[in-house]
Amino acid sequence: MSDSLIEESILSRPTYGTLKIVPGLAHYFLADASGAECIIRDVQELPRDMMEKVHILYVPTPGEAALITSLYALGAKRFEHFPTIEEAVAKLGEWLSDAKMGSQLYLAGTEGLVGQGVAKGEECGLDHTAVQCEHRGSLARRVQCVHCKTMIEDVTTQPVKCPTCDLLLLVRDHYSRRLAAFQGVCINAEDPTEEIEIKEVFK
Amino acid sequence: MTIQFKDESFRGDFSYANSPSNIPRFPFPFPEDEYMYSTNIEPHHAARTGSPFENAFDVDEHYVAEMKDRALVLAEDPGRCQALPHMETAGWDFLELVMVSKARDYPDLFKLTMDGDRWHWINTPLQIDDTFTFGDSSTLPCHPMEYIGRQVQGDHAILDQRDGNLWMDAGIITAQADWSLDFDIGMNFFEWHAPVPLAHELGVFQRALKFLLTLPQGQPSRRLNWTLTVNPRLDTSPENYPKWGPDRMTVTPENIGEKIHLRVELQTFWRLPRSNAILFPIRTYLMAMNEVVTQPKWGRRLHRVMRDLRPELVEYKGLSRYHPILVEWLSQFDDGAPTSPGIFPD
Amino acid sequence: MSASDHLIPVVVSNVVEVNPIIKRFEFKHVNGDELPAFSGGAHIVVEMLDDGTKRKNPYSLMSSPFERDQYAISVRRDDTGRGGSKFMHEQVRPGMQMKISAPVNLFSLDLRARKHLMIAGGIGITPFIAQMTQADKLGVPFELHYAARSVSQAAYMDSLADRFGDHVSCYCDDQGESVDLEVLLSNQPLGTHVYVCGPKGMIERVVETASSLGWPAAHVHFEHFLAPPVGEPFEVHLAKAGIDITVGAEQSLLEAVEASGTPINCMCRGGACGQCETVVVACDGDIMHNDHWLDEEQRAAKQRIMPCVSRFRGKRLELDL
């Protein structure tokens, strides 16, 4: 079991496991600060000669350095860190474009990071069923406003106001792997005068 | 038989209506006095001259107006028509199926001439006369799915088959009952149906998927699905929910007959030859309550179905706000007499 | 409803002896109509009327999916089988009328692939001939690795080399050549899909090697070209029809059910598609599950059977038909 707190839901809502290194020609890791310990936990168990096959991308929390040091100390063939998920995922795409079949992809951290890593893997020709994912950290969601298509990052409330079109969105459990986002649909479209309390639910 | 195409709208002034002669051919979706989910799939054989099941792709008096409405939706939101890169072959399969079927079934309206890969297509109602090379997308103004999708009534999803599942990897979807292609594209059969209540537990989707995975070429199938829509609006997409959602507040006992429409989807399933994908046309028929009750059998039965509908389905189909007054209104057409089996009017 | 209920009448337009054990058969529609389009990897079911016995065997289409005036299949003669291949080799002549099903594809290319890697053994070459034609036309990179017992048994190798050049490599057992799967599967760009069709052992080696190198299962595709096995005759009771039938030694249970006039669904007739799955009402004996459809638990439970390829030995078998 992973340490994830995700409750059972509808079939489109992703579920996550615990990373476990499997046979492969190369091993690509991507994590944010909440998932870094998953990489450290698994990679430090590997024999030294395996490190030639290990490639790590990391998105630290601003100002944090201790985990960067620990990840660097693992001695991977490549280790790079980026301030945003977007940049790290773009780098992952560069690395995967030269990769061979038999490469393994491991993702650990918040759902936004994991989801975008899966989508990039699929874009590069790696079936999503082949990607290992471990959820760590906050349950904040990445939400697509179905009306104006804005991607809203780190959503913790239900409903949430779309910053672009101002509609109040119900955050559904319906999830798109391609968009790496949950669906947000106007909650009071039938009667826009309806008052709805906004509660913090995805912590 | 020449069809008189109507000049009408599915938005704004909602001038859409069915001619008296068009009413009895409506695919009324209830073969019995009660409704529950089932995997109600049957062979899509030609059935009943004049019915919407007579031809592979039914063309009726709303054809031209529906295609105009589709063009309006696509102009506003091109994301309603999308295909993942591997779906081009399937797009050509779709184009071929529609052109061959329509030219065969409606020779006075559509004409297809094939000289090897060089095809000449004439669509008289839409005033289209094009020559192109089959299989070469550079000879069409757009993706083959979009090209033909703009010339055939109903939404069309194309499902790629792999790994024992079906994947919604392409579609032209402008007249949908509240689901988003832009969001669902790339999902598998269980994922895109995930929000549907009750049916997963009943095993409906497992059975349907198993059936569809072995759907043979040349043996299409069909089923009917239904919901209710306020006003004859084709585009009830989640994207535009803020535009059509408020309509649900406008229903009163006085205007039910003209406002509420029975919305029936004639869903068909076709194995496509070159891509091995499945074409999933979802053809929508709309009929105002006032038009439905002109057929006494339908009035009686619709009252019984609505009265006894499971609460989860009332909620899921978005009927909650006006369900009680609709049942009350329909009761005046139910004299308690028995109804004959099947969907066709007496 | 069943795919083989809707048969297409064809005439045998050509029979070619490819080598001592393989013959190619070409079919045209009896009316000269176009045959249905198909995708590489599809098969048809050929109906054989062999002296009172109606037999239906699946064969992969090897002709170009882009040409619809005729179909071609290749049949390897198997003298120990049920007699289907023997019938094709000995009885079928140009000009003869036969019936075939519409094409069915249980071994299609994954059209998302960046590259198709095809591995064929012996007669397993046939679906790849159509698939290479398709991949070539779509402009997607592909490679074929073809293993045969000898140069003379490597059917179609010369014409494939002419058409596809470096994209095809042949390995002959009698020359001591073999595919180095480890090297081959270690050097494929991400997004490659591998397809294998050939003897059971070859399929297993490819699946195992790919898995040990870290290939995801979704990128590994295989087709068992499974013919219904022969066996001892046995009796079956069909509960709904209320009749007893006998399945002959060289007949499949499915064919015996069909011969009795009892309706049954089916499609691939090779234990792969799942259409003919039938509920077992009572079973006192052993079911020889020869299919690729039921899982171990279902086999052990003896509550389901795939009549197209599975057989029975014991006192009583009663089916929900």
UniProtKB/TrEMBL annotation, chain A:
Keywords: 2Fe-2S, Flavoprotein, Iron, Iron-sulfur, Metal-binding, Oxidoreductase. Pfam families: DmmA-like_C, DmmA-like_N. Residues 142-185 form the Dimethylamine monooxygenase subunit DmmA-like C-terminal domain. Residues 9-131 form the Dimethylamine monooxygenase subunit DmmA-like N-terminal domain. It comes from the Bacteria. NCBIfam families: mono_DmmA_fam. This is Uncharacterized protein.
From TrEMBL, chain B:
InterPro entries: HODM_asu-like. Pfam families: HODM_asu-like (PF11927). It comes from the Bacteria. This is DUF3445 domain-containing protein. It comes from Thalassospira indica.
From TrEMBL, chain C:
Residues 5-110 form the FAD-binding FR-type domain. The keyword Secreted does not apply. It holds the Pfam family Fer2. PROSITE patterns: 2FE2S_FER_1, 2FE2S_FER_2, FAD_FR. It comes from the Bacteria. Residues 234-321 form the 2Fe-2S ferredoxin-type domain. Its cofactor is FMN. InterPro entries: 2Fe-2S_ferredoxin-like_sf, 2Fe-2S_ferredoxin-type, 2Fe2S_fd_BS, Beta-grasp_dom_sf, DmmA-like_N, FAD-bd_FR_type, FNR_nucleotide-bd, MRET. Keywords: 2Fe-2S, Flavoprotein, FMN, Iron, Iron-sulfur, Metal-binding, Oxidoreductase. This is Oxidoreductase. It comes from Thalassospira indica. The lineage of its organism: Bacteria, Pseudomonadati, Pseudomonadota, Alphaproteobacteria, Rhodospirillales.
